[in-house]
UniProtKB/TrEMBL annotation, chain A:
Keywords: Transferase. The keyword Metal-binding does not apply. SMART domains: CoA_trans. Pfam families: CoA_trans (PF01144). The lineage of its organism: Bacteria, Bacillati, Actinomycetota, Actinomycetes, Pseudonocardiales. This is CoA-transferase. PANTHER family: KETOACID-COENZYME A TRANSFERASE (PTHR13707), SUCCINYL-COA:3-KETOACID COENZYME A TRANSFERASE SUBUNIT B-RELATED (PTHR13707:SF57). InterPro entries: CoA_trans_fam_I, NagB/RpiA_transferase-like. One of its GO terms (molecular function) is CoA-transferase activity. The keyword Transferase applies.
Length: 288, 258
């Protein structure tokens, strides 16, 4: 096992190939690995299947034409109910979708994490989710209860991208906010696992900042660590920072208006991560 | 919104709806709360007759006691004031699916006469709908497994339809006995609270029927705002008008949340 797993965003994204299935951690517009997503936008990769508790990660990848299919339970910006890019792509039918609810989605990831073919759940029985997704089957309990349940198929991932607050160079990674989201499941479900963090620290420092339980990922389930300050921008990475609501509104307004989008893309997405963060600082200063 | 005058008090039909929904919750219940109308009502209940109501939000906050309305389920105030914070997978695996929640409190974009909820698409062609809605979220689990489901929603012909275009969250399916047949353990929607009155399932057919009218509202008005031939319960009653305490609690909460 490599002991120093630090890498750059471009290096980990270079491992992607066209047509891969990628999982993106976080939840809605919260602790999304946005710097890694921005690296994907800069790469030539395409035809991705994106598995996500979707937020602006999905919107940006759709906007850049990287996506063939989205597997989702929702796509939201939290304070803005619906990501405009995802909304338009769905309305136009330009992407394929596998639409779950959150519980089925979690069952699909859990099954993959456990290397089981499926996991049973009660949710979805009698709903039209089963009608529009003929791939979904039910299964009957072999025990006395004989209960019929939805058999949610495992959602394996080629690659998982997640963003946490801290990690050491070996891949032990820590969240300092209130919610782990599903980031551990994304990593357990994936073949290759890449984590970006606000700060890389030495191993002893991790437990100075939080209890050992806050170490959500350990080096056995992480292949590369990318130090990426403000790497979740404009989503939250509390306690390091909250959501940049002004920037998110700007993103959503430009995403709604095809006439304004090129200006947004040119200003924020044409350069590398350093250029992005520089423009964000300027954008923030403009409002003062 | 129409303003109603009852004795000295003036209130809107939306305020009546929130207060009627708050009254439906009992002290000590564990209530799974959606953002928006359900969250408003649950927080009014906790400040009036149900101080020990346990509010559970989908982000994994158990027993939240916010001093204002949360802007979204990710609002930090929910975690900061909670008894405990658990992860979202735990919410689904250990709280919803095993039936540890008394009341699931939901909103709806579209609801039908059997209380089935649609938050997926408007239009009957899934591949080519008129409007795509944000999607299921956690509502299907809530509808499947909470002991009871209360729905709070403004009543109109657009939102109250004979059959929903897409069953996102199962209510009573196509009628009585469907939930048992499907193996859904909770009782499903037992109350639908609107700005006009309250609907409950007919014990014989599970079809929603009008069981309570808010002050100043007539049966015909509710029927006109319903997309099916709405039946009226033989025990139709009147909602008590909001009390001064209820109204001032609701308004203070709204004011604190601006």
């Amino acid at each position: 096992m490599r002991t120093d797993k630090t890498a750059t965003a471009d290096e980990v994204v270079a491992e992607l190939a066209d047509g891969m299935t990628i999982g993106i951690g976080g939840w809605g517009s919260r602790r999304k690995p946005m710097a890694l997503v921005r690296a994907i936008l800069r790469s030539p990769v395409r035809d991705l299947t994106v598995v996500s508790y979707g937020g602006p990660d999905v919107g940006l990848l759709v906007a850049a034409g990287k996506v063939r299919r989205v597997v989702f339970g929702f796509v939201t910006l939290d304070t803005i109910p619906y990501d405009p890019w995802f909304g338009r792509a769905r309305q136009e039918g330009s992407i394929e979708v596998t639409e779950y609810d959150e519980g089925m989605f979690a069952a699909a990831l859990s099954a993959a994490a456990q290397r089981l073919p499926f996991l049973p759940t009660r949710a979805g029985l009698g709903s039209d989710v089963l009608r529009v997704n003929p791939r979904l089957r039910t299964v009957r309990s072999p025990y006395a209860d004989g209960e019929e349940l939805v058999a949610v198929p495992a959602q394996r991932l080629d690659v998982a991208f997640v963003h946490l607050n801290r990690a050491d160079p070996h891949g032990n990674a820590q969240y300092l906010g209130p919610d782990p989201y599903f980031d551990d499941l994304f990593c357990l479900a994936a073949t290759r696992r890449f984590v970006s963090v606000e700060k890389v620290v030495d191993t002893a420092t991790l437990t100075e900042e939080g209890p050992v339980q806050s170490l959500l990922l350990n080096r056995s389930t992480v292949d590369a660590v990318v130090e990426s300050p403000h790497g979740a921008h404009f989503t939250t990475a509390v306690p390091d920072y909250g959501r940049d609501e002004r920037f998110q509104r700007h993103y959503a307004e430009c995403a709604k208006d095809p006439g304004r989008w090129p200006e947004f893309a040119d200003r924020f997405l044409a350069g590398d991560e350093k250029a992005y963060q520089h423009e964000v600082t300027r954008f923030t200063e403009e409002s003062r | 919104m129409t303003a109603t005058t009852d004795a000295e008090l003036t209130y809107t039909s939306d305020e009546m709806m929130s207060i009627a929904a708050a009254r439906a919750l009992s002290n000590g219940q564990r209530c799974f709360v959606g953002i928006g109308l359900p969250s408003t009502a649950a927080n009014v209940a906790r400040r009036t007759h149900a101080p020990d109501l346990v509010l559970v939000y989908e982000s994994g906050t158990l027993g939240s006691k916010p001093d204002r309305l949360p802007a979204s389920i990710g609002d930090g105030i929910l975690a900061e004031t909670a008894d405990a914070v658990i992860s979202v997978p735990e919410v689904f695996n250990y709280w919803l699916q095993p039936g540890r929640i008394d009341v699931g409190f939901l909103g709806a974009a579209q609801l039908d006469k059997f209380g089935n909820i649609n938050t997926t698409v408007i239009g009957d062609d899934y591949a080519n709908p008129k409007v795509r809605l944000p999607g299921a979220g956690g509502a299907p689990e809530i509808a499947a497994s909470c002991h009871e489901v209360y729905v709070v929603v403004r009543q109109s012909r657009r939102s109250f339809v004979d059959r929903v275009d897409f069953v996102t969250s199962v209510g009573h399916g196509s009628g009585k006995g469907d939930r048992e047949r499907l193996g859904l353990r909770g009782a499903g929607p037992t109350l639908v609270i609107t700005d006009l009155g309250i609907l409950r399932p007919d014990p014989d057919t599970s079809e929603l029927m009008l069981s309570q009218l808010h002050p100043g509202v007539e049966v015909e008005q509710v029927r006109e705002a319903t997309g099916w031939d709405l039946k009226v319960s033989p025990e139709l009653s009147r909602t008590d008008a909001p009390t001064e305490a209820e109204l001032s609690t609701l308004r203070a909460l709204k004011e604190a949340s601006k």
